[in-house]
Amino acid sequence: MLYVVATPIGNLGDITLRALDVLKLVDLIAAEDTRHSGILLKHYKIDKPLISYHEHNEAMRTAQLVERLAAGENIALITDAGTPGLSDPGARLVRECIKRELPFTILPGPSSILTALIGSGFSTDKFFFVGFLPNKSGGRERELRAAAARDETTVFFESPHRLMKTLRAAVEILQDRQLCVARELTKKFEEFRRSMASELLAHYEAHPPKGEIVLVIAGRARLRRADKFNGSAERRPTE
Q1: Domain 112-225 falls under CATH 3.30.1120.10
Q2: How far apart are the C-alpha atoms of 179 and 120, rounded to whole Å?
Q3: Tens digits of per-residue pLDDT, 47-66?
């Protein structure tokens, strides 16, 4: 049986009891970064064989793991943070299990996407998750323009060393749209900073960001509702 196990996105205390039970039960743990996951396993005194499973060896490891699953082994798949298969390796292995009719199950848990979305205060009725913004400026600007055209809230992953480039592009493309930089989620210095791109850019130029970042962009629907509210507030009854 394959167990796709969600792990903490920052605070080690966020792991589920079921995840701990499974990690203690399985024959093998496949991890995106064995050194990083080793910290989690050591914290909970879990001593199991550990192998790497990342984007550079995913094809080879998938073939190996499928054979071990077919032989009856129980294997847990974990990533550095959150759920495998979502902007992290794992989807290929799940698809192969489906193809080979091998049993698997998903253990839900912490999610930086949902944590950032709810913490942003923007609409949660509908949202669009993109994943990591492209490295190249052209692709990054296309994604930001697409977000500007959406009624739904848009959620991106971003790295601290690229955030400034993204905010500079957002100043031109998103203008008065509200953004939220969700940073170091569930950790000691967790931050939800909400403002327009120009103000966020000024802040992070003065205070360079650290840690993993989720960028949330309010949808057009929120902007229209705000305009409607402001317009109604400014109207005065006629005599």
Answers
A1: no
A2: 8
A3: 999 999 999 999 999 999 99
